[in-house]
Amino acid sequence: SVIAVMIGGKGSADVLNAASGAPSSAPLSAPSDYGDKINSKASTSMISGDFTSTASDPDGRDDGRVHEWRPPYPRLCAYHDVNSLGAAWSLGLCPSWVEMRPTGASQAQSPTDDDNGDGKQNDLLTSCPNFRNEIGCEPIRRVALSRQTKELVVDAAEVEGWQREHTAAEAGVLEDVSNVYLGGRLCAARQPKNVIEPQDLGGYYYRHCFAGRPHIEYFGMDDELGPIAVSIVKESDDSHSQVGERKRKSGGSSSGDKSAVPVTSMIYRMVIRISELKPIRLAIPEEMLSEPAETRSTRALMRELIELTCPRIPFSCLRPALQSHKIEEMLMKMDEQPMYTRYKIGVLLCMREQSTEEQMYNNEFSTPAFEEFLDFLGSRVRLKGFDAYKGGLDTRGDTTGTHSVYVEYQAHDVMFHVSTLLPYTSNNRQQLSRKRHIGNDMVTVIFQEPGALPFSPLAVRSHFQHVFIIVRVNEACSENTTYSVAVSRSKDVPSFGPPLPPGATFTKCADFHDWLLTKIINAENAVHRSKKFATMAARTRREALRDLAENYVGPHANDGAARIASRLLGGSVKRKGDKGVHKKPAMASTRGALSWLVDVHDHSLNTRVSCVLGLSADALILLERPSGACIFCTPTHSIIGWANTEMGLRLYYDHSDSMLLRCVTESGTDEELSQLLERLQAVTKGDEAKEVVLRRPSTAHPWGFHLHDEGVVTDVEMYQTAWKAGLRQGSRIVEVEGQNVATLSIEDLAVIVRERDCMRLLLLSPAPDGSPRRGCEDPNCPAVKGNEQMLTPDAFAKQPLTHFTYQEMFRLRNREYSQGSSSGSFEERSSYRESTSASKNNLCGTNSGPTLSSRVAATFGIGGGGACGLPPRGFGLGAAHSSASVHDHICTLLNPPKPLNRALSDELLRLSFSGNDTLFGTARSARESISSELAHCQVVISQLMEDKRQLENSVQKLTDELAMERKAHDDTRAELDRLKAVDS
């Protein structure tokens, strides 16, 4: 993916200097005002009810209220998680600004609102005021330029209902402090799509890094900010050696050699809790402080850390906490409060011609279709004596029914409140014994039978039911059972995944089971993020902080006369001019996320979006302003390079997908850009791209290089056009004539190559070990061809390594491909077999006509063929050989042009041609390879035929047994009929 960065609205120096006469580049699509200077004051840094704002100004207003929170040193503070980064930049909801009003289903009946709904409806669901519907036509927001977004432009009116990419939705912790490798080195298209959107997983930061270790706590009360709690711990950090080791393994650039030296430094980890705001978890390297910690007191150190991280906190109000283990327990409970692993979900049966709440509650008995759905949803459990999560049901006296439905999914406990399994009261139409459970659930599943009327939240009266998931059965209790799904959520509830596919219909299978449970869990998590519940949680946190600040603080420590005088003066004894003596931030010294204010080009909307970019040692994320929603996330190992152009800095990741952004600065310098490039060099395996211009005398002259279908250069012909221009084996082409390779098909690329005699390429150099830079460790990833089939890390690890290394592709071209693996080229496996067979015939002195490889090359008007003993190199851009004889190949290899200085065809030089014996030895090897492959195919075919015969025998045996069972069944039925006749 490509990210473009500009400083102060001015284009930075173009480091991609093309040779004179190069064709003009086609710029990436960008809005007309993309080059405007960022100096207007249009938006607020705090959410203002308009979640779709794309303003880029750092300052702003919301109903006359100004919020000025911003990190004073964003490149000194390394943030631990997404929520901490958003809180430091004042992103997201401010609970104190929320106006209390009816929420949930009751909000649809509020006469004070003029919201008429989104107008989306179908047979399952109708449009409802103050609710937003999801029926399967919602777009997925893809910020980067890729195959999915090259022609996608979403109407701005649809923004409220769009879905995020699964990689952005699951972004949580940015700094791994658990030292556990979670795997997942594949591209985003191969990752699981049904992801449980994380809650505030950074809440475990205090437990992992503070609890049980020597650390200090400071509590205080401020008239403006309210209760405050600050925790600080000092620990060693081996980020230098970790980053260097990662770059050595991944073949990173040499610019990170300094960080490769094992260096142990010290860092200060902090947790800043301010009243109702979300906690800020971060780390600061000790070397960034103005003075060594050994030369000053704890209080002076604390003061400087507060000034670096959050200067709005008046240090004079903070006092040291008492030494008590209870304080640790209270802080851990407070930080981990927003994380939920237990859910209670309501399930209502809606029969034919029903749609109202009263009708659904008064369905006394279940139906076969409903029973089938409940068995599919979870396990039927006996409530009496049930020792797992009970979800508010009675597990002693059966007062809430005898059975219920329960499921444990990915460490989450879900108890379903099923209407037909709860007690039924015949003389009470409201069915309060059922409604007191289901009516207090945040998420409700409405099961509709065929013929049911469309559901509307207007039919439900509840302040707690915020999300309704409607499931309608089709062809119930059959082999062709399917379920149609629709979702309705309160407009205060943010959208959540996984998204509904087009058509919104699922077959009864394990994939739908996982999708539905993931959707249910994400729905309740999204309700907790809504204004009402976020406000209640914030107030609970504020009261807990107030209790700590009032009851668990001690007196100031006696730090000496100078400290006492400083305290009496109400500030630091440092002179005002001493404040800016902090050292230049070291981009490789921390694993947490450093931050930049940027403008990003959103390819889904074709517009500019203001974001905060966070770049840690593990991930790069973009948080939209002012909502704080994560709209993009990619791991750093997937970033393969960048290019600093007149449009800005372009960042490439995965399969050369790209994103465009620019830094926003008030100083008008390129300092932020330089720091961003330095950080990219330190934490990724990518490198800066360079521009190469190829020229040929005419379109009939070959270019002289061969491409893999991802734009990887697999071979360069000696002394041809590409070789003279500097193209080398292992390079990766990311742009051709200003067009991203990720958006081009094979046919599009062939047209460009065939019709031009001057071609401008933007390419990434190979890694130090000669392999191409890859964002996905699968060289034959099907996502390149549009197949996004998921491959789990376990399945990926079980595949043969020889098919997933380019070194084998480069150096062992004459080795046969294993059964079931693709050739990794533009041509299919059949092309390789046919071409190899033709090469065999040529070596034997026969002429078998043009191979498939040469026919493809002739079709595209480019050179084809390959060297002796080598299989075809896929989409050949090499020199055409006028003769197919062995003698011509030998002469070409033994008498190359002088001087002999091969840069990329080194493997041909390694073939020591020492006479005819070597030549015919190579021919014999090729012939033996063909024979071996044919023998292997014959063995496989024999095994398949034997398996087929065994399966046919098994089918016949089962058919005979079934016939016998039917006969026995008929005999039993006849005997029963006879006995009934005798009794009568």
UniProtKB/TrEMBL annotation:
Residues 40-56 have a biased composition (Polar residues). InterPro entries: PDZ, PDZ_sf, Rap/Ran-GAP_sf, Rap/Ran_GAP_dom, Rap1_Ran_GAP. GO terms for cellular component: cytoplasm. Residues 331-548 form the Rap-GAP domain. GO terms for biological process: regulation of small GTPase mediated signal transduction. Residues 941-975 form a coiled coil. Residues 20-32 have a biased composition (Low complexity). Residues 20-67, 102-122, 236-259, 817-846 are annotated as: Disordered. Residues 691-755 form the PDZ domain. The keyword Phosphoprotein applies. Keywords: Coiled coil, GTPase activation, Phosphoprotein. The keyword Coiled coil applies. Residues 58-67, 236-245 have a biased composition (Basic and acidic residues). SUPFAM superfamilies: PDZ domain-like, Rap/Ran-GAP. GO terms for molecular function: GTPase activator activity. This is Rap-GAP domain-containing protein. It comes from Pristionchus entomophagus. The lineage of its organism: Eukaryota, Metazoa, Ecdysozoa, Nematoda, Chromadorea.
